[in-house]
Every structure is written in C-alpha cells, then in structure tokens.
Amino acid sequence: MNYKKITAALLIAAMTVPFGACSKEAEETEQTTAATTQAAVPSETTPAVTEAVETQPVATQSLSPDALFDPSNPMAVNPITGLQTMDPGNVGRRSVAVVINNSHAAIPQRGISAADAIYEYQTEGGQTRLLAVFADVNTIPEIGSLRSARILSTDLAAGNNSVFIHFGRNARVPDHISQYGIDHIDGNSCSAGVYSSANYADGYVDLPAGLFFWRDAVWKSQRAIEHTAVTDGRHILEAIEYNEISMIDNESNMLFNFVPDNSADIATGDPCQQINVYFSGTNPDALFTYDPLTGLYSKSEYGNPQIDETTGTQISFTNVFVLYANIQPHGDTTIDAYLEDGGEGWYVSGGRIIPITWDKPSPVDPIVVYNENGEELEVNRGRSYICIVDNDMESQTTITASL
C-alpha cells in the first residue's frame, strides 16, 4: 500500500457441536422449515432474556490493572466496545455473532444498530454480508434478515470465540466447522415457519419445541423468501441451551487494544471526513461520513443511508477499519479468503485516518491490528465497523479529507 500524507480534499487510497445443531443439516437453499404447530409471535419489543443456567463459575470483573474499569461505575466493561456499559452478570460469558443479509433486496435490516461491532465481507459475485457481534446475547433485539454461512464469516466469529449464528450454509462450511470445533447454530434447521411479530403484545414468539427462528410475515409479503428469516436474543439463548453450548469464556479477550482516553496512534493521523470502501461492482459504496458533533461515522450504501428498520435511524460507529485481504476464487461459485496471510489497511476514528497492518494466524485466532511501528494499535473505545476487502480493490478506496 502506498501510504501518502493526505493533503488534498480527495485522495484515492489505493474476523463444538455437530452441524445442523437443532435438528438436521440446513441446505444452502435456505428454504422454510415447515411449522409443526401453531405458535404465538412477539411484538417488536423483545423483553430482556433470562440468563442461561451454567454449572461452571463465571469470571468476575477485574478491578486492576484494567484501566478501562471504573470501580464507581456499576456496569462492566464490554469486551467488544471497551465501554463500561455491560450488565455485570454477563462478565465471563461468550459473545454471539449473527450473519445478516446485505443485498439490496434485503434492506432495511433489523437490529443492526444494537450490534457492538459489525464485519462486512465479500461472498459470491462481489455481494457482501454482515456479521453482527453482540457481547451480551440478552441485548439482541429482533434481528434479520438472517443469511447463510461462509468459511470467512465462520472464521471471523471463531476469532472472537463467539457462538456463530447463521441460517443455512454452503457445502464447504460443515467440514470447516467440524475441523476447528466451532460452536454454531444453523437457524435453517430450527425454523418454525412464517409468523408476524406485530400480533403479540408480550414481545415473545412462543415457537414449537426445538424451533428458535422464523420467517417474518410482513417481510414475506414484500420480499423473496430468502430475505425474511429473523430471530432475537431470547430465542438464540434458548437455542444455545437446547444444544448445550457453553457460554463460559474464561479469556474474555477484548476485540481490540482499547484505551481509556484518545488513541495516541490516531491522534497523529491525517484528516478523514469521509471514506468510501469499494468491495466490488455489486457493492461499490460502503460510505462512512464523520459527524464532529457526535464523533461518529455514519454508514451509507446503495446510494442511501443504511437504516435499521426497528429504530428508523442510520447506523453509526466510533471506529472504522478497512482490512485488505487475499481473497481468491475457489474454483466453484465460492471464494477463499486467506486471512492467515494478514495484510494492510486503514484505521479511521475521530475524523482522522492512519495506515495499519493486521494478522490472524488461524481460523480460531483473533485479528490483531498494528500501527506503522509494528506495535499493537491503540483503539478508541466504542462500536466498530470492520470491512474485509479484496486486495485487488485497494486502489478504489477513496478518502476525503474535508467536505
């Protein structure tokens, strides 16, 4: 990557249970699993999820030497954001990562504004999907539309030790999940059919036994069926309990090297009012625009603000990462992303941008990001959006210093 100082207004700068956890293996067709009984369905407001019963001890919040922790604050540090905003009861518990549809036919999505971090990554034909990460399963609202797994999304979830939630998969995923012992739930094999959450005031879908996902009836009247699958945190937790997946995470690693004050690394960066990440001709405008009043970057795509249908608001983030990766055709309709090769990229925060490098030695290792000196990058606390982009598209990223 050619790292030049940004002096013009516009520059081109050039992340173990058997597969089919709930009942049977889900096919890539992602067709509806027929409902076996009539079920009640929730309102759009989902109540807090009851914690799963664990037989293992839960870690306690460290008071020292964690500089992110303020003993006077009753909340715990969220390992995905670095902010002290998490329910203390969730300390020492695993995060959850959910695959979200990002095709033009499947927007707006639901629930993505509540995610602690989002990965965007390439699938076939240059289309992208999202992986929404939640430190606390209890905080997941109704979310969708859900989509199928690829090896790339599996590896991003595994790097955070997240329980991986997807709806279907392609043919190469089951062997990969089995090889690396990745805990996952395939909603396509646990789907109860078509329901409308708007009909129920208590905010809960009472589904048949062993079923934890459903097709939204309103979306089904507006979209193709593959763009309609949903679930929420309460049902995900029930699926985790049903499949006896442990939520204990004794490591509780931070997503990044978060610092309590402003990152010294980004403080020396060049101005970045806007960055447009070009994934492909299908997804040419993952556009992030900085608002100095909020200190956040708001995201747009397909020429419009990216909206969470539940809140009606544009999604926004403290941190934006662009990680260029070795992505190659597999030889069939799928692609391979060689994340173990690491690569270069950009870190954007607080209206500034700096070049970075990154690595991920294996599918189950986390992504670690470094500054120009090869030291682990200091990252501002807050929600992050991480773009995994083909090296071949690096030159089409555009950076605007000021508008």
End-to-end gap: 24 Å
Q: How many individual helices?
A: 5
- What CATH architecture of the domain at 10-15 and 256-400 do you see? 3-Layer(bba) Sandwich
User: Looking at the structure, what is the overall shape?
Assistant: globular
Count of extended strands: 28
What class do helices, strands and sheet pairing give?
mainly beta
Largest sheet: 11 strands, mixed
Radius of gyration: 20 Å
What is the fold named in CATH at topology level of the domain at 10-15 and 256-400? Answer: YerB-like fold
Task: Please specify the SSE layout and strand pairing.
Layout: E1 10-13, E2 96-101, E3 117-122, E4 128-134, E5 143-144, H1 151-158, E6 163-166, H2 173-180, E7 184-186, E8 191-195, E9 213-216, H3 217-220, E10 229-231, H4 233-242, E11 258-259, H5 264-267, E12 270-271, E13 274-277, E14 286-291, E15 296-301, E16 304-305, E17 307-308, E18 313-314, E19 316-317, E20 319-325, E21 327-329, E22 335-337, E23 343-349, E24 352-359, E25 368-370, E26 379-380, E27 384-390, E28 397-400
Parallel strand pairs: 2-6, 3-27, 6-7, 8-9, 11-26, 20-27
Antiparallel strand pairs: 1-28, 2-4, 3-4, 5-10, 9-10, 12-24, 13-14, 13-28, 14-15, 15-16, 15-19, 17-18, 20-23, 21-22, 23-24, 24-25
